[in-house]
Design a protein that fits this description.
Elements (H helix, E strand, L loop, with lengths): L1 H20 L19 H6 L11 H5 L4 E5 L20 E5 L5 E5 L6 E6 L4 E3 L5 E3 L5 H7 L4 E4 L5 E5 L3 E6 L20 E5 L2 H5 L2 E3 L2 E4 L12 E7 L3 H9 L7 E12 L5 E7 L5 E4 L2
Helix pairs in contact: 1-6
Length: 288
């Protein structure tokens, strides 16, 4: 601690002088005004009761439902597994007032639904249109419905799952039976729960090219093809530099420099901002 104090006592005045002596200049950035068309075929393939991961938001659901915060087990990882799933908020979800046995979990950083969990109380249609009562559903039933899925498990979990990259059917494992797919022992095992999950960041997260980030506007309708462009520039002010020094580089502040046409949407997909910036990040026109 004494060494840090001595270092800051000597360095901060020098830093303050050097920063204040610099003249800030507007930097010009080269960027493209890109567009992106979303393949919307995934909506019909993974929707349950019109709720679709990475399309539906909590705001959308609350237009017709009351949501209740509930605890939820992660069947894929299980209590004995180390780590968490980056695709959604772990351990917490929301039950729906109008649909028994259905729980949604939101994306970690946005209001998008990232995962739908169906408990044994759920009765309704799966994304393939098949009506099911989960409490009566067995492993052999889902194998018949989805013959191209595969069996998988984490050794730390109490469940095997029959899945593709989006839909998971869970059933309790028997540690004495090594391979679910090679043994008819599991055919009559009941399904304990169903997950339908997408990673929204993978779908909508930014692309990086020549120093510029390109990102679809958050909550934009799927029909929207516009892509926002921006640069993240580290701040040069004294307080930011002090934060970087005292955290040994772990903390810093950035400014978002918007470029070209810039759109923003509310969580119910309504356009709330339409602005236009030049190649230096200066606002030249505000429509909305």
């Amino acid at each position: 601690m004494p060494y840090r104090i001595i270092f800051l006592t000597i360095f901060i005045p020098i830093l303050f002088f050097s920063c204040s002596a610099q003249t800030k200049k507007s930097e010009e950035y080269k960027f493209e005004q890109k567009s992106l068309t979303i393949d919307t075929s995934f909506v019909s393939q993974i929707s349950v009761n019109s709720i679709c991961p990475c399309k539906t938001t909590l705001t959308d659901i609350m237009k017709t439902n009351n949501l209740k915060r509930v605890d939820i087990e992660n069947m894929e990882l299980g209590e004995n597994c180390i780590g968490s799933d980056a695709r959604f908020e772990n351990g917490k979800g929301y039950s729906l007032s109008t649909t028994k046995g259905m729980i949604v979990q939101k994306d970690k950083d946005t209001e998008y639904v990232a995962k739908i969990h169906l408990t044994k109380e759920f009765e309704g249609k799966l994304p393939n249109g098949q009506f099911v009562s989960v409490k009566n559903l067995k492993v052999k039933d889902v194998v018949d419905m989805y013959p191209n899925f595969t069996f998988s498990s984490r050794m730390c979990s109490d469940y095997w799952y029959y899945n593709n990259d989006t839909i998971y059917f869970y059933f309790r494992t028997d540690k004495s039976v090594k391979q679910a797919q090679d043994n008819q022992y599991y055919d009559d095992k009941p399904i304990e729960g169903i997950d339908i999950v997408l990673w929204c960041y993978k779908m909508y997260g930014p692309e990086y090219s020549s120093g510029v980030f390109y990102e679809r506007p958050l909550y934009a309708p799927l029909s929207e093809t516009h892509v926002n462009a921006y640069v993240m520039k580290g701040r040069e002010d004294v307080l930011t530099k002090i934060k970087e020094i005292t955290s040994f580089g772990k903390e810093t502040n950035y400014d978002i420099i918007k470029l070209g046409k810039w759109l923003e949407y509310s969580s119910d997909h309504e356009l709330v901002t339409e602005e236009y910036y030049d190649s230096r990040g200066n606002l030249v026109n505000k429509v909305k």
